[in-house]
Write a structure and sequence with these properties.
The complex is a heterodimer of chains A (112) and B (108).
Chain A: E1 4-7, E2 10-13, E3 18-25, E4 31-37, E5 44-50, E6 53-57, E7 64-70, E8 73-79, E9 87-94, E10 102-103, E11 107-111
Parallel strand pairs in A: 2-11
Antiparallel strand pairs in A: 1-3, 3-8, 4-5, 4-9, 5-6, 7-8, 9-10, 9-11
Chain B: E1 5-7, E2 10-14, E3 19-24, E4 31-37, E5 43-50, E6 55-58, E7 61-66, E8 71-76, E9 85-92, E10 102-107
Parallel strand pairs in B: 2-10
Antiparallel strand pairs in B: 1-3, 3-8, 4-5, 4-9, 6-7, 7-8, 9-10
Classes of the chains: A mainly beta (112), B mainly beta (108).
Amino acid sequence: ETGVTQTPRHLVMGMTNKKSLKCEQHLGHNAMYWYKQSAKKPLELMFVYNFKEQTENNSVPSRFSPECPNSSHLFLHLHTLQPEDSALYLCASSQLSNQPQHFGDGTRLSIL
Amino acid sequence: SQQGEEDPQALSIQEGENATMNCSYKTSINNLQWYRQNSGRGLVHLILIRSNEREKHSGRLRVTLDTSKKSSSLLITASRAADTASYFCAPNTGKLIFGQGTTLQVKP
């Protein structure tokens, strides 16, 4: 148990669907992150939120839309995804941006 | 690229042996962190070494940092089958930049 919970663990969706990934942290952290992990590629940072404000968008396509309603919850809204978006999406949190990150176990996303 | 680059990409050893993984990076850092990822799971933080530190220990883990060479190493001593995982270094330049990792297999 890492203190970071991601749901769902697995998601299969068609390219025209709209779905959301959810992340919740129970650690009292102030920074939250979305990463994409594809086979044979380095972990890619997508978005960073500090104190609920987005501080990093790493040139992510607009079909990925993050939302951080409070410091404990982070969402990733998905629409009109492409097959190359199939990957493991990991959420993480940390007290501050320089400090160790705690990861959830990810959502395995498959786009049909 | 600022990312950490791990070497080797894959390592297979017998239980009880030591495992050494290396990391190189390209820019100035605040600290450098090492993480482990078991198959199908998220990353787990192992150890953080600050830019003004040269060596750090945690249990069977030993991390070194050479900022002049922009390199770090992770040594796992007396390895166990449970150490089988992927290991990532993450230089911290204000954000963590992960490499592709080293896949370690420890055979019983």
